Each structure stands twice: as structure tokens, then as C-alpha cells.
Here is the input.
Amino acid sequence: MSEGSITFDVVEFTAGDGMQLNLLHAISDKKPTKGPVLLVHGAGVRANIFLAPVETNIVEYLSSHGYDVWLENWRASMDVAPNPWTLDQAAIFDHPKAVEKVVEMTGATSIKAIIHCQGSTSFMMSAVAGLVPQVDMIISNAVSLHPVVTTFSKIKINILPKLVAFLTPYMNPQWAKKPKSFIAWATKLLVELTHHECDNTVCKHTSFIYGSGHPTLWRHENLNRETHQWLSDEFGFLPMQFFTQMSRSINRGHLLAIDNRPNFPTDFAEVTPKTEARFAFFSGKDNVCFLPVSQQNTFEYFNKLRPNFHTINIVENYGHLCMFMGKNAVNDVFPRMLAELEK
Ligand SMILES: [Zn+2]
Here is the structure.
């Protein structure tokens, strides 16, 4: 694989339950002078989401600043066969093994991580449960332990799984291109009736499935034309279990496990975090997928446990994913993340 002057080695790893997953290791002409950084994507996308067609994406930016960049394709990735994943499974089986693999391949004694959305919620679960002790600094974007959404999104995510679970075990923004079932056609019709903000049907489907914004996942003005086109191939399968877990967590105000697994917390705001990591919480101020108060709440939670150690960065004029995909993120967002990595 290649991306500009950067190429990628695919490094396979086996999750704790035997699922085959992989890491993309960025290789550039310049040898890394700093330690490994693991990037973890959100739900229903893939590692590729960090490689938007912008002048400088986050991988190129971190590489050019000397970091050894690794991208994790965990079980929610479009590059993994569709499966009924939960955040618990990702937290217990995927992230700890991905971290172990990076440590094994690099010989580093500690690593840093940049985690986004449901890659962030599940990775935070790993951290709080003490399953990724090698990670000493974590940049979390959009949401971590305290998911908060708009009132309309909350009503929708409470109704949606109950309403459609008997019709389909999953949702998929690719239905915009090829609706093959009743639910796919019905969703497409509903999206076309309620979304008129642009002419990209996958973009509008993601807005419908991931919340209630127009659009939900970015501010259109932050994307270049190529990225708005490119994202059509970057969204796929989302199992109903995930919507159920998220609706329960949103109703409670913080993350809840759903699988009842042994030696794993059930309520993630009611256990002492088993991590020494420093957290830098980020959110776009205009994020309408998860409101910025989500990250504010988690920052305050960790700040109470260890005052003046963790930080929060709310970035003006940015939404959810344009924090990474935005045409000017290289000037507006990445330097703030770099400053946190280098503190
Ligand atoms: Zn659009």
C-alpha cells in the first residue's frame, strides 16, 4: 500500500478470541526519531479514515515530525469481515493485542495512542480496565467515557434498535449505493426525504445513521471536494448490538459494558481506572455527533482523580471527523495534537 511518499506494511495480529486483524505500519523515507503512535479508527470505517485526500493527513504529519505511526484495523473495521461486534469485545480482545504487537515489533517500552470515537470509547475501556499498561499518553477525539448526544439523536437511538432489529441485524451507509433489501430501500427513501444538504447519498446516509445533523460527521465547509467524494467508499457495516450498547450508555451518561464478561467492569464511571496514562481530550466545538460536553465530562472525571495532569482541547469551527479529514486540520488541529504528544 502507498500514500504519497509513505508506504504501509500490513502487520497481522490475532485478537484475544482468535479473530484475525491487522495494523498498517507507515514507512517513510525518513527513519522515525520518536516513539510509536497507534491510531485507532471509529465504528464502521477503517484505518484508511486517517488517510483522507488532503494536502497533509495526520499520518504524513506525524511521520514528518519523527513519529513511528501505526494504524489499527480492529473488529469494527470495514476491512474485517462483518461481525456482531461490541465495545467490550474490542476492549478485551483487540486493542490489548494491537498494543502488544506494536511493542513487540518496535521494542518500545511505552507507546502513545490517538483514538477516535468508538475506537476511543472501546480503547478507554481497555485503559480503565488496565489492559493496555504500555500506553502512557492517549489523545482521545470526540467521545470517551461519557457519551452525550442531542435530544433528537437520543430519542432516535433509543427507538431505532427496537424498531428495526427484527428487520435487520445491521445498518450500512453503503445502502445508499446498492439497496438490496426492504430496510435498505426504506432507509434510502427516508434519507432522501429528510436530507437535502448535499448530493452525496453516502454522506447523507452517514448523517442519518450516526445522528441527526445535516451533516452529522463533519462540517461540509471543512472538507475539500476530493474528500467529500472519497468518503463514499469509507463507511460500512454497523451491528445493532452497537446501537443498543450506545443507547444504554447515553441514557446512563457514561459507558456501560454489554457482554457480562468476567473480570471486566460493567459501569466504566464507577470503577477506579487502572491506568497511569495522561489523557488529552479533544472535540470539535461544532461536533453534533457527540456533543463537546461528552469530552468535558470525561476530562472533569479524570481531573478530579489527578488534578492538573490531563488536558482538554475544544477546537473552534470543527465537527466530528473533520478533526482528521479537514482540508485545514494540518494547521488547526494536528499542531495541537502534536503539542500534547510532545509535552
Ligand atoms: Zn455531504
Summary: The mean pLDDT is 96.
